[in-house]
Amino acid sequence: QVRLVESGGGLVQAGGSLRLSCAASGVIFSINGKGWYRQAPGKQRELVASITTGGIISYANSVKGRFTISRDNAKNTVYLDMNSLKPEDTAVYYCNHVQEGSAYWGQGTQVTVSS
What we know:
globular, 0% helix, 11 strands, 58% strand, mainly beta, 4-stranded antiparallel sheet
């Protein structure tokens, strides 16, 4: 089992920045994928960014150039640096960890961007 604990959400004005963190604990395999998803009210959960153990990264088009995903394998932690935030970025953000065919989710952290 893998437990994910997120932190770093909050309220910020448009144009501001936030950093989300997600620490994993439990049985962590060396080969895994990590990602950040978000879900706004009335919308489906969508992938924001993902990163593999080897550092292959992908971003949703809506966040390219504004968000940066990174990971610290020694700490089993994944980060999401969010800059130039927009009101449409408001959502609950969930971290995701995939290994050996199983997916794990954090509890979610609210990000609210005011205009």
